[in-house]
Amino acid sequence: MASRIHWFYYAAPQNFFDLCAKCWPWCAVLAAALALMGLWLGLGVAPIDAQQGEGYRIIFVHVPASWMSMVIYLAMGFWSVMGLTFKTRLSGMMTQALAPTGAIFAVLSLWTGALWGKPMWGTWWVWDARLTSELILLFLYVGFMALTSAIDDVKRADRAGAVIAIVGCINVPVIYFSVKWWNTLHQGASVSITQSPSMARLMLLAMMLMAIAFWLYTFAIVFYRMRTLILQRERESHWLKLWFEKHQTLQRSGV
Length: 255
Known about the structure:
Blueprint lengths: L12 H33 L13 H28 L2 H33 L7 H22 L3 H15 L2 H11 L19 H33 L4 H16 L2
Helix pairs in contact: 1-7, 2-3, 2-5, 2-7, 3-4, 3-5, 3-7, 4-5, 4-6
């Protein structure tokens, strides 16, 4: 008889703590390797664009960063719903761990977009629908982090942050569909699920490698940050005291 699968095994902080320790180094190494490969292909090997010249190469960082800024916020919304619905301890920690990385990607998206916009549009910034909604996304990240850090009670901070994360998810489809809904300066999507890519295969490969690298980086840094948050929030737990005793014993024995 097949053994039962414990789907919620890693919902316990002590089990997820061990998983983070095992996963984050591998994710970090793979992220670095794929990022180096993607940058090499995108910046050095991919052909020059017929219309935009060398300036188009910024998309190999800009586009994956923009994707991740939206995906991470949706992930925050998901964990917020889980936390409010099931009262899971890990949910609040997950949103706390995701927010700084999402904010970094939002900044990277806006910064690389400005670098691309200056030679293409002749200006660093325009109040374009997509740029403005991406800026709002950055403000939502900053607002989430500011609010949750300002509230001393952890449970209250998690609930307040969850409201911002869930409501803010409305902005994500606005970012994605803005070029279709309004007449914007921003070009349309180069990669779409329903259409063939409008770029050379080598360019697409470089972009996909960078996207996967950013995903793995996110996993690595979130796993690493989750260990810190679990240590902070669970410091009075019996299992954590046993973990520290075991860790100290192994250090003394030289293992």
